[in-house]
């Protein structure tokens, strides 16, 4: 089987609109959470989100074309352009039919639906935009990436809520490992800071409703009371080691393991026994031919909800046994908020950078220990240490669990 390596990365996040800025912010413990500015929240209970700042889509997409797509596609195309540029993919050094795109979104162009449904109800069907459907459907980010770069291989869009990005990365790895593709551009994106989304999450009591950014997204802290919505995208270029070496690409890290399971339990809550999540974690470790003792860092799903960290801690303990207390754990969602379908992709990038620089990013805002979350959660400050193997957990609504393992080359 082919070994699979990462040769390019791109990111648009609440703490930086490229990989290096994003990573410097994580190392510094910069909080990306603030008052919502994208719409009027006077009638909303939720007041905070982690918005992307100072993003200019026209650096990546023509203004006229940008008007014909949802913002999730803006983020995705920017991240993809960065990743493809870093990987050095250009016409002539890849086979278009062996270069795929597996790129997901949790809800796709929900903002378009939010805009067009009132037109239907108030003015009739003739006023609905003829572009409504292609702007709304979740696969359009994958489609636009393929069209931008001429990638004609496998092309599809995983949709598994918060686990979307890791499913995309894992399936991309498998496609290359088993010889179906040479290169796959993968990741996830989300444009979730919109009224319909925020209203839905607030009414299900899933989001934090306070007004102090410093204690809003506080994973593993006993005071945690709900996640903070983020937005943005992450993109990785995966490639067979053989193909990358043949074209002289710079190899950033190896994607060596992938595990995925389903809780079969509840539409929003993780399973209290943590069994399925632990099997996804162990699956990724076993897939890489490693043991729990080999893992240096876990980028936790860590959403800052009361149930997630309690049950994720149980899952980590089941997977790692006594090693659970020896591995560094942190949640970068403490800084970025929760990017939903884009979360796992930017967290995979954080793992690659942790390996490259030998730095474990912190869980900021941590003040009150929770006895149900008694892991080494790396509070408030980054820790310098060798990181050879990192795991990223993603646990989505509906019980979708996906875990990837990244290691130093």
UniProtKB/TrEMBL annotation:
GO CC, any one term: cytosol
* UniProt-recorded Gene Ontology molecular function terms: 3-oxoacyl-[acyl-carrier-protein] synthase activity
InterPro entries recorded:
3-oxoacyl-ACP_synth-2 (IPR017568), Beta-ketoacyl_synthase (IPR000794), Ketoacyl_synth_AS (IPR018201), Ketoacyl_synth_C (IPR014031), Ketoacyl_synth_N (IPR014030), PKS_Beta-ketoAc_synthase_dom (IPR020841), Thiolase-like (IPR016039)
Pfam families registered for this protein in UniProt: ketoacyl-synt (PF00109), Ketoacyl-synt_C (PF02801)
Instruction: Locate the active site.
Output: 162 (for beta-ketoacyl synthase activity)
Biological process (GO) annotations held by this record are: fatty acid elongation
Fetch the SUPFAM superfamilies from UniProt: Thiolase-like
Entry-linked PROSITE patterns? KS3_1 (PS00606), KS3_2 (PS52004)
Q: Which EC class does it fall in?
A: transferase
Q: Which residues form the Ketosynthase family 3 (KS3) domain?
A: 1-408
List keywords of the entry alphabetically.
Answer: Acyltransferase, Fatty acid biosynthesis, Fatty acid metabolism, Lipid biosynthesis, Lipid metabolism, Transferase
Into which family does the record put it? Answer: Belongs to the thiolase-like superfamily. Beta-ketoacyl-ACP synthases family.
NCBIfam families (UniProt xref): fabF, PRK07314.1
The protein's job, in short, is: Involved in the type II fatty acid elongation cycle. Catalyzes the elongation of a wide range of acyl-ACP by the addition of two carbons from malonyl-ACP to an acyl acceptor. Can efficiently catalyze the conversion of palmitoleoyl-ACP (cis-hexadec-9-enoyl-ACP) to cis-vaccenoyl-ACP (cis-octadec-11-enoyl-ACP), an essential step in the thermal regulation of fatty acid composition.
What's the protein here called? 3-oxoacyl-[acyl-carrier-protein] synthase 2
Natural source organism: Agathobaculum faecis
